[in-house]
Every structure is written in structure tokens, then in C-alpha cells.
Write a structure and sequence with these properties.
It is a single chain. By secondary structure, this protein is mostly beta strands. It has one domain: Lipocalin. Strands 1, 2, 3, 4, 5, 6, 7, 8, 9, 10 and 11 form an 11-stranded antiparallel sheet that branches. A hairpin with a 2-residue loop joins strand 10 and strand 11. The protein is globular and about 40 Å long.
Length: about 140
């Protein structure tokens, strides 16, 4: 099963008790299922500052893994109540990060669905931000604004 989809991402970062600017991105992508997991894949654009990078979200029942391939490969794992360490690559170098998810919910099916992730990020054991993001995946032509 492979489908062309429209992906809408709404994110809200929080830094030092201040809400950040709400970020919204709508892009074309692909949805497929493999070995019981759903995969959402899309190409980053100039708008995200990561032009040329492909982002893939592996959606399992209670776990979501974000993988970015390209010039700055990165992997982040979101699992409720768990803290996962990884390397976050940027144009300025690599950072060791920890991702702790307070909530991870998904309603993915072969037709699309929603993801909701509430998480915090630490860099060198210092909390650098809290984030909420919701991803809505619909078959191409079905996304409602």
C-alpha cells in the first residue's frame, strides 16, 4: 500500500515559559505501510530551512521515529514516558540531544490519520524547549483547511 497524500503539520514550540510562533506547513508526500508500521515521507523545502532533506516518520502503535536523510541526517524517537538520546545534525555541527515525550497519539490507517506529539528536548542535559505538534495526513485532494 502506497498513496500520495497531503501532510499538514502544525507545531507550537515553547521556550522559557514563553510560547513560540505557531508553525504551519502543508506539503505533498507519500504514505505507505510496511511490516505493520506506517511511514509518512515528504521532502523539506526552503520554508523549513532544510531544502533537499527528506523526512520520514515511522509510526508504530505507541512510538514515532523521525528520520531525516540528506545533508544533515538526524533521528529522533518519540515514545510516551520515555527519554531517547540521539545526535541532531545541523549546518553548524552535531549536538547530542535527549527527547522526552509526554504524550504520543496516532490514528493512522491506510487512508491517513492524525499524529499528536507533546515532547521536550534537552541539549547536553539542559532543557532547551517544549514542543507540541500535530500532523494530519489525508489522501491527496481530501485535506480540509
Amino acid at each position: 500500500m502506497r498513496k500520495d497524500v497531503i501532510i499538514q503539520i502544525n507545531g507550537c514550540p515553547k521556550y522559557d515559559d514563553a510560547d513560540g510562533e505557531v508553525i504551519e506547513l502543508k506539503t505533498a508526500g507519500r504514505l505507505y505501510r510496511k511490516n505493520g508500521s506506517y511511514y509518512i515521507m515528504y521532502k523539506e523545502s526552503e520554508l523549513t530551512g532544510m531544502e533537499g532533506i527528506t523526512t520520514t516518520l515511522k509510526v508504530e502503535d505507541k512510538r514515532v521515529t523521525l528520520m531525516r536523510n540528506g545533508m544533515y541526517p538526524t533521528q529522533m524517537i518519540f515514545e510516551k514516558g520515555q527519554r531517547h538520546f540521539g545526535i541532531y545534525n545541523t549546518e553548524f555541527g552535531s549536538l547530542t540531544i535527549a527527547v522526552s515525550a509526554r504524550d504520543v497519539r496516532n490514528s493512522m490507517t491506510d487512508s491517513g490519520g492524525d499524529l499528536f506529539i507533546d515532547y521536550s528536548i534537552e541539549v547536553d542535559h539542559v532543557l532547551t524547549g517544549e514542543n507540541l505538534f500535530k500532523i494530519q495526513v489525508k489522501e491527496a485532494g481530501e485535506l480540509k483547511s
